[in-house]
Write a structure and sequence with these properties.
Elongation Factor Tu (Ef-tu), domain 3, FAD/NAD(P)-binding domain, six-stranded mixed beta sheet, 17% strand, single chain
Length: 436
């Protein structure tokens, strides 16, 4: 049997390679690092989490949490390892990113059917192939894909938040709590009064950003769910207070008062040595980041192990090119997954890897490719990216707005989302019993 080639060692590629090998089909699994690094990666490990260590809300009545649970039911290697290497994060599934990616690297490298190769692939190979090269596909392969599809890429900009050394955070000011006291108190909260907030807001608006290249400036389009903090500040005095600096549901137990604004930090590692500034993705110059972010009470002496970075992401026009099985319409033996096809978020990338890998293996075994019920979060997401308007297509994260409505109107949002969950998991169980 000819091996399937999987290109790209991110979350999607890692999941795809594992699912193919688990089906008894040999895989040649390509990752260009460490021979060549993308602008956003720092290690050579598979499934490196470059923006945040959080996979989103754990509760299955939330969109991300439902996607987690669907992937657990389908034996996802990524979610299995995420559960294994989870760190406290309130109601979110967050991982020790170093242990998580190192474990996945070692696990896949040991599989007897996975031929793990380090090197850059510059053209789409023949045969059955899964493209999972992500939003920073290398230029040669990107150009070959452009020629193959006959279309230009769409692009937007994505940014990563700074990471702070835990010992440098002033615990006399920062306090531990989760919003509305949900789950374990897993966030460090830096409170600001009005005067402190306004000073921070003013300095953030004036801070110097890294300049974009001419071609980037012409095509730049920020993804709203990952908007740089300085861009939020420019939208108005209170924009951040309705976003990442919102004080709602947080009170300092030492004073009993709710702050005017709160900057939250989420634990990055199991030891609690590193903390991520939640929602503070940024394109500020590094010197400006230190100057402005140290104005936040509790971070006046902050040590940064990683400052924020911003990079260009690219994705194909999936509605015009792909089917809900994640096959290219003009070449069904070519499949793709991850941010390259316009899904947003770690869990969505893993879900795409699961389906692309599963279908690639089925093609190799002489079986028909599968699509998932659109009443599941996975099925709804892939139905959306294959059927949206090509003219206005933009990346889509998992959300309940893309799932078909219930048979009856339910006014209560928690109850409605709970019913979406129940229907999804029931339909997935039935589909799994009949299709897999």
């Amino acid at each position: 049997m000819e091996p399937i080639q999987v290109i790209g060692g991110g979350l999607a590629g890692t999941e795809a390679a594992w699912q193919i090998a688990s089906a008894g089909v040999p895989v040649i699994f390509w990752e260009m690092r460490p021979k060549r690094f993308s602008p956003a990666h720092h290690t050579e490990h598979l499934a490196e989490l470059v923006c945040s260590n959080s996979f989103g809300a754990m509760s299955s009545d939330r969109a991300a949490g439902l996607l987690h649970e669907e992937l657990r039911q389908l034996n996802s290697i990524v979610i299995s390892k995420a559960d294994e290497h989870a760190v406290p994060a309130g109601g979110a599934l967050a991982v020790d990113r170093g242990q998580f990616s190192q474990d996945l690297t070692e696990t896949l490298a040991k599989h007897p059917l996975i031929d793990f190769r380090r090197g850059e692939v510059s053209a789409i190979p023949e045969g059955i192939v899964v493209l999972a090269t992500g939003p920073l596909t290398s230029p040669d392969l990107a150009e070959d894909l452009r020629r193959f599809s006959g279309m230009e890429y769409l692009s937007f900009f994505d940014a990563a938040s700074p990471i702070v050394v835990g010992e440098s955070i002033n615990r006399d000011i920062a306090f531990m709590a989760s919003r509305y006291d949900k789950g374990e108190a897993a966030y460090l909260n830096c409170p600001m009064n009005k005067e402190q907030y306004l000073r921070f807001w003013e300095e953030l608006r004036k801070a110097e950003q890294t300049e974009l290249k001419d071609f980037e400036r012409e095509t730049a389009k920020f993804f709203e769910a990952c908007l740089p903090i300085e861009e939020q500040a420019k939208r108005g005095e209170d924009t951040m207070r309705y976003g990442p600096v919102k004080p709602v549901g947080l009170s300092d137990s030492r004073t009993g008062e709710r702050p005017y604004g709160v900057v939250q930090l989420r634990q990055e590692d199991k030891a609690g040595q590193l903390w991520n500034m939640v929602g503070f993705q940024t394109n500020l110059r590094w010197g400006e980041q230190k100057r402005v972010f140290q104005l936040i009470p509790g971070l006046e002496n902050a040590e940064f192990v990683r400052l924020g970075v911003m990079h260009r992401n690219t994705f194909i026009n999936a509605p015009q090119l792909m089917s809900a099985s994640l096959q290219f319409k003009q070449r069904p033996t070519l499949l793709a997954a991850g941010q390259l096809i316009g899904t947003e978020g770690y869990t969505a990338a893993s879900a795409g890897g699961w389906l692309a890998g599963t279908n690639a293996a089925r093609l190799a075994l002489g079986k028909e490719a599968l699509t998932l019920p659109n009443t599941t979060m996975m099925g709804a997401l892939f139905d959306f990216i294959s059927s949206a308007s090509p003219k206005h297509f933009q990346p889509m994260p998992p959300n309940f707005g893309i799932i078909p409505v219930l048979g009856e109107k339910v006014k209560s949002k928690p109850e409605r989302y709970g019913r979406y969950r129940d229907r999804s998991l029931a339909d997935l169980a039935s589909w799994k019993a009949n299709q897999l």
